[in-house]
Design brief:
With 295 residues, the protein is an alpha/beta fold. 46% of the residues lie in helices and 21% in strands. The strands form three sheets. Strands 3, 4, 5, 6, 9, 10 and 11 form a seven-stranded mixed sheet that branches. The chain has a two-stranded antiparallel sheet with strand order 1-2. Strands 7-8 form a two-stranded parallel sheet. Strand 1 and strand 2 form a beta hairpin.
């Protein structure tokens, strides 16, 4: 048994585009031809690879084929660059990153790589506790993650610690904490969560002995908008020091005290020899170690 590489690339494009119709437009063929290619690949490998939902999703076997297609595309690009070949087009690197890293320190090192290399980045944003799953599925080649244990077929490097502190807008603090920052006042004061998976505020409350189900909760699922919601006084929340320090300096925010919440971050990438992917990793890890707290 072998994997037909042209058909594997078609599967990866279908996953990237989300539907057979969109993949057909990218490949300049008909949706029926795309479907025939996927079915031929499934027949040859004897496994179902694609669930034809909207958007499509891969099976576990499909994940393995997509990973292979992406790895070969990257290695092919590196080989062409090594031979000095021109006209091969930009390499596409799908990467996963948590929202707060994306909003603070992640983009400058990518910009430095893009200034030197013919590369485009396809960024997938998810919570740092879940980005490793995108590596496992083959959706991305590398990820910023809170997971220290390497994903199968990957290698891991520590990046640093993203430190969060509890803060509130000064008028909000005067309104809700006139009697001090106590379990009773924290149980009544509204807070801001990123989304339903965000447990940073819950961790901080639990450490203060507060019934975590008590406070009213806003949900603002974008890093910059989350910070803006806290600054505007919608509720209190934990912000990365990158985002809180300027507003603390000008008095717009005040600290609520308590221990900061530290989130260790790691860089995981596929364990293959790729000068381009290694260059991206080196830039990101160096940036993280420069600007983040030490682990």
């Amino acid at each position: 048994m072998h994997v037909p590489l042209d058909l594997a690339r078609t599967l990866a494009i279908v996953v990237d585009e989300g539907t057979l119709d969109a993949a057909a437009r990218r490949l300049h063929i008909t949706p029926s031809a795309v479907s025939q290619r996927i079915r031929a690949l499934e027949d040859q490998l004897g496994r179902v690879l694609l669930v034809r939902s909207k958007p499509v999703r891969t099976t576990e076997a499909g994940d393995a084929v997509v990973r292979l297609a992406r790895q070969l595309a990257l290695l092919e690009h590196d080989a062409l660059v090594g031979m000095g070949a021109a006209g091969g087009g930009a390499a596409s690197l799908p990467l996963a990153v948590n929202a707060d890293s994306l909003a603070t320190w992640f983009l400058p090192p990518l910009a430095r790589v893009a200034a030197r290399r013919d590369v485009v980045f396809d960024l997938h944003r998810d919570d740092q506790d879940f980005t490793a799953g995108l590596l496992e599925s083959g959706t991305v080649m590398a990820a910023v993650t809170s997971r220290q244990t390497p994903v199968a077929g990957c290698r891991v490097r520590p990046v640093g610690v993203l430190r969060y502190e509890a803060v509130a807008a000064a008028p909000f603090a005067r309104r809700w904490f006139t009697d001090g920052i106590t379990p009773a006042t924290l149980a009544a004061a509204p807070l801001v969560d990123f989304d339903r998976r965000d447990d940073l505020q819950t961790q901080w409350l639990r450490a203060r002995g507060v019934a975590v189900e008590a406070p009213p909760r806003h949900r603002v699922p974008a890093s910059q908008d989350f910070a803006a919601a806290v600054v505007l006084g919608l509720g209190w929340g934990l912000l990365p020091v990158f985002q809180s320090e300027p507003h603390l300096d000008d008095g717009a925010l005040v600290r609520l005290g308590g221990d900061p919440v530290d989130v260790p971050l790691y860089w995981q990438q596929w364990n293959l020899t790729s000068p381009l992917l290694d260059e991206v990793a080196d830039e990101l890890v160096a940036e993280g170690r420069r600007v983040l707290a030490a682990g």
